[in-house]
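Researcher: Next entry: Zinc ribbon domain-containing protein (Nitrososphaera viennensis).
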Amino acid sequence: MKKGEFMVPVCTLCGKKAWPPSPACPKCFGRTVLKKVEKTGTLVEFSNSYVRGHEGVFGIIEMDGFRLVGSLDDDGKLRKGMKVKMDSCGVNVEGAPFYHFTPATTK
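Model: Predicted structure:
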């Protein structure tokens, strides 16, 4: 994540994604390894934040087998159930992970 790459621990035995990240699988306790995963998901819920220093739109995104909370670009067209794509991730100056999403374009 520090390099802006989004990877998720995946169990080497059963294939389950371990989220939040863990060295052991929550299902079978097998060892996990980091793998790149699809960066698209579905917007489950979203809301505006008015907390000073953290203003913006934040949402819950259903990824493939786990959920993330991330910031969103609000173009006035956000709606529950829409597809979104992670366009950046990393670790902020406070050491906390961040994820940013934009509406996925359909062609």
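Model: Note for the record: The longest strand covers residues 40-49.
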